[in-house]
Specification:
By secondary structure, the chain is of the alpha/beta class. The protein has 3 domains: about 40 residues; about 120 residues, Elongation Factor Tu (Ef-tu), domain 3, CATH 2.40.30.10; about 150 residues, Nucleotide-binding domain of ferredoxin-NADP reductase (FNR) module (Rossmann fold, 3-Layer(aba) Sandwich), CATH 3.40.50. The chain is built from 10 helices and 13 strands. Helix 4 packs across helix 5 and helix 8 packs across helix 9. The longest helix is centred in the first third of the chain and has 32 residues. It is globular. The termini are far apart.
């Protein structure tokens, strides 16, 4: 039998041995970590991955929300090649009326030659140029420039890439029993081939087309608000344009066009030709206010057509590839907003929430004046 003192002494005698074993193990692993740092690095990396927050799951967009892709920035878009202090003097090539007999007012298609501009005045569809009318105002100062949406593609009406075209309505209004003519619009409607006109720009990135060939384009236009839409449609459906651009539109284009009379419909022959040639890609809805009635018996406006097509229209809007373009008189915006609100409700959507989301995503484009 061992005495208690002997047992205690024997236990204490093993302590140096245990310390030695522990020191050996510690030294071994420390040396291994120094010799194989990649092993240690790999373990550290694994820990970081496992401890990080998991990637969020993709949640389907609810009916009250629009898809939220990042708004694309358009590269290489020309802006302000010519400014008011140094405008380009373009030569008028042609100036002719776009209206048929019985139409209201005066609307002309005007084309300018750009080939002598240096630097060259190039532009893309959806931009505008400034026009500085000749003469002086009542204070003896040069007239201020006015901006006009470009109605031609970057290749121009002649497809040679050296012209720009406008669609201009002469502004007229009554004041104190007198008819007042708009300064710049009258100047443009009166100019003749060979005349020189001061041009600035181009400007604008709000109304540019998306680059994707399979995008859907909804266009809402009244009067000369058709100008950028005409450029879009030529880019999409003119054979020469498609060949030059190496861009083959595969989506759906839907034009809502408002006019007071049938005789006031602009570029109608071209649009009818696109309908015949591309029935699967182009849809054309007209609202002739003085010749048609809405369901309430009032005049037919573009917002009434939007309501009639609410279901189909919002099926397109729910697709993140769809872009909506609005161009025309500023007074058309409240009517379109009201129609969109009602149309959205029929689909269980909230337009007041949906519109800013579309805008943020770069899918809602407005240019009114």
């Amino acid at each position: 039998m061992y005495s208690q003192a002997k047992v205690l002494a024997g236990g204490l005698a093993h302590i140096p041995v245990l310390i030695g074993v522990f020191y050996f193990i510690l030294t071994f692993f420390k040396k291994r970590a120094q010799e194989f740092p990649q092993d240690n690095k790999g373990k550290t990396s694994e820990v970081k991955v496992s401890s990080s927050k998991p990637e969020p799951k993709k949640v389907p967009v609810s009916k009250s929300e629009a898809p939220k892709p990042v708004k694309k920035k358009h590269a290489d878009v020309p802006v302000n090649i010519y400014r008011p202090k140094t405008p380009y003097e373009g030569t008028v090539i042609e100036n002719y009326s776009l209206l048929n007999e019985g139409a209201i007012g005066r609307v002309n298609h005007i084309t300018f030659d750009l080939k002598d501009s240096d630097p060259f005045l190039n532009y893309v569809e959806g931009q505008s140029i400034g026009i500085m009318p000749a003469g002086e105002d009542s204070n003896g100062k040069p007239h201020k420039l006015r901006l006009y949406s470009i109605a031609s593609t970057r290749h121009g009406d002649n497809f040679e890439g050296n012209t720009v075209s406008l669609c201009v309505r002469q502004l007229q209004y009554e004041k104190d029993g007198e008819t007042i003519n708009g300064v710049c619009s009258t100047y443009l409607c009166d100019i003749k081939p060979g005349d020189k006109v001061k041009i600035t720009g181009p400007v604008g990135k709000e109304m540019l087309l998306p680059d994707e060939e399979d995008a859907n384009i909804v266009m809402l236009a009244t009067g000369t608000g058709i100008a950028p839409m005409r450029a879009y449609l030529r880019r999409m459906f003119e054979a020469t344009e498609k060949k030059k651009n190496n861009w083959n539109f595969k989506g759906k284009a839907w034009l809502f066009m408002g006019a007071p009379k049938s005789a006031n419909l602009l570029y109608e022959e071209d649009f009818q030709r696109y309908l015949a040639d591309y029935p699967d890609n182009f849809k054309y809805t007209k609202a002739i206010s003085r010749e048609e009635q809405n369901e309430k018996g009032g005049r037919m406006y573009i917002q009434d057509r939007v309501l009639e097509s609410a279901n189909e229209l919002f099926n397109m809007i729910e697709d993140e590839k769809t872009h909506i373009y609005l161009c025309g008189l500023k007074g058309m915006e409240p009517g379109i907003d009201e129609a969109m609100t009602k149309a959205a409700e029929e689909k269980g959507l909230n337009w007041s929430e949906l519109r800013p989301q579309l805008k943020k995503a770069g899918r809602w484009h407005v240019e009114t004046y």
